[in-house]
Amino acid sequence: MSAFLTGTVPGLFNYWVVIALMMIGFYTVIAHDNLVKKLIGLNVFQTSVFILYISMGYIHGATAPILTGGPASDHAVYAHPLPQVLILTAIVVGVSTTALGLALIVRIHEAYGSTEEDEVLAADFVTQEAEQAKEAARSRAAKAAEPHAPGGGDDGAEHDHERDQDHDYNYDHERDRRR
Asked: How far apart are alpha carbons 21 and 9 in whole angstroms?
């Protein structure tokens, strides 16, 4: 039993590191409300996946898959290059998505004044309620000012263009106000 523990457990050290990093990254994403901390947690989790794939692709005593043509190359053990290529690609994609995430967080901070998830959601909810109240008041005013067709029916076709223009103006005005 002790031979198993001394021979196998240290050989699996990379996998223990992967599990620890995955749990740290996952906990960071779940436990923190700050968007920057969540992004850091995602990066830690992503790094653990990189280490997992690199560990699985590792072959003890293997060399780079470059054929030299000599007699020593006939008995050489070569490492498969595909896991390394995939991880390099994943690192590039990870860096670019992190940059995009940081840009979005900066934009959220400019718009809402905070990077805390709860504060951003609360501010967004207040803004949404205000927009709905404005739309309801505008709709009531439009219905009150609308002339009625004979017989009580009104298709509203003559006011569709005006409503569309008002909606575009309100949308642009609200967007500019948030900046």
From this structure: 18
